[in-house]
């Protein structure tokens, strides 16, 4: 794996972190949102995207997925509603990346066919909003600000529109976690994702579990366990879907 790429910081001193790690961690207090796991990006790109291929990201958010793509020699096109966030992404990328530089476009991913007109993707890779677990803005088009029913409808529309830009015999990967509703029960967002992809013609091809940092969970879980027998959650689902023939899709990715 490329030694230039960012890694999870863990408890390492800042002086031992690479340039991308320091930049992304420095941006976290300003964004107020979580930072995507860059090592997962590296693995997904190497495993499921043809060398030098175009990665399409309908929920671009921060800069990590685009910067990692650039450093590995992949082309990247991300779409997000927040012009302010995308401006910050471009500033980070210009200081870190060389060709091919990642590209971010502002717009609603339900209209990704227009926003990214002419794009022909080799891989779809993203992490969608987990409904309102993190609310990113008060924009009426923002999925995190919608009711759950409206969120699901918009989410399905994004999946249909984005997969329409994916080449035949190619993979798509969504990293998804579940959320609880007001009644305290899980919504079932990972399974809704699988259903939406199947409806769009892309069956589930691979499934993995991403173990996330425990952090303060051992402290928080005692209270929620005593109050309602709710277990602590320390994972997200990594779903890989295939458009077309899986063997041909795998063959296009090369030997890594």
Name the descriptors.
alpha/beta, 9 helices, 256 residues, single chain, disordered N terminus, seven-stranded mixed beta sheet, Rossmann fold, globular, 7 strands, 19% strand
Descriptive report:
By secondary structure, this protein is an alpha/beta fold. The protein has a single domain (14-210, 237-252), classed as Rossmann fold. The chain is 38% helix and 19% strand. The protein contains nine helices and seven strands. The protein has a seven-stranded mixed sheet with strand order 3-2-1-4-5-7-6, with helices on both faces. The longest helix has 16 residues, at 148-163. It is globular. It starts with 18 loop residues before the first helix and ends with a helix. 37% of the residues are buried.
Blueprint (SSEs and pairs):
Elements: H1 19-31, H2 38-48, E1 54-57, H3 64-71, E2 75-80, H4 83-96, E3 103-106, H5 112-115, E4 121-126, H6 148-163, E5 166-176, H7 189-199, E6 204-211, H8 217-228, E7 235-243, H9 246-252
Parallel strand pairs: 1-2, 1-4, 2-3, 4-5
Antiparallel strand pairs: 5-7, 6-7
Helix pairs in contact: 2-3, 6-7
**Briefly, what CATH class?**
Alpha Beta
Give me the Rg, rounded. 18 Å
User: How do the strands line up in the largest sheet?
Assistant: 3-2-1-4-5-7-6
Largest sheet properties: 7 strands, mixed
Principal-axes geometry comes out as globular
Q: How many beta-strand segments?
A: 7
Order of helices and strands: HHEHEHEHEHEHEHEH
Total discrete domains? 1
The oligomerization state is single chain
């Amino acid at each position: 794996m490329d030694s230039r790429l960012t890694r999870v910081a863990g408890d390492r001193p800042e002086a031992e972190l690479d340039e991308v790690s320091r930049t992304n961690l420095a941006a976290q207090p300003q964004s107020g949102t979580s930072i995507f796991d860059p090592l997962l990006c590296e693995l997904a790109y190497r495993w499921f995207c043809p060398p030098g291929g175009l990665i399409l990201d309908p929920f671009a958010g921060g800069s990590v997925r685009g910067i990692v793509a650039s450093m590995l020699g992949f082309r990247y096109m991300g779409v997000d509603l927040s012009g302010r966030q995308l401006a910050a992404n471009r500033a980070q990328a210009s200081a870190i990346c060389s060709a091919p530089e990642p590209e971010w476009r502002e717009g609603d991913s339900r209209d990704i066919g227009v926003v990214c007109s002419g794009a022909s993707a080799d891989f779809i890779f993203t992490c969608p909003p987990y409904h309102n677990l993190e609310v990113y803005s008060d924009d009426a088009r923002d999925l995190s600000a919608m009711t759950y029913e409206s969120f699901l409808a918009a989410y399905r529309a994004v999946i249909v529109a984005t997969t329409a830009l994916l080449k035949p015999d190619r993979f798509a990967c969504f990293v998804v976690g579940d959320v609880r509703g007001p009644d305290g029960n899980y919504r079932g967002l990972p399974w809704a994702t699988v259903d939406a992809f199947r409806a769009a013609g892309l069956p589930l091809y691979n499934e993995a579990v991403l173990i996330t940092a425990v952090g303060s969970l051992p402290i928080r879980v005692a209270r929620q366990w005593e109050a309602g027998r709710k277990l602590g959650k320390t994972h997200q689902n990594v779903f890989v879907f295939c458009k077309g023939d899986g063997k041909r899709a795998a063959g296009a990715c090369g030997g890594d």
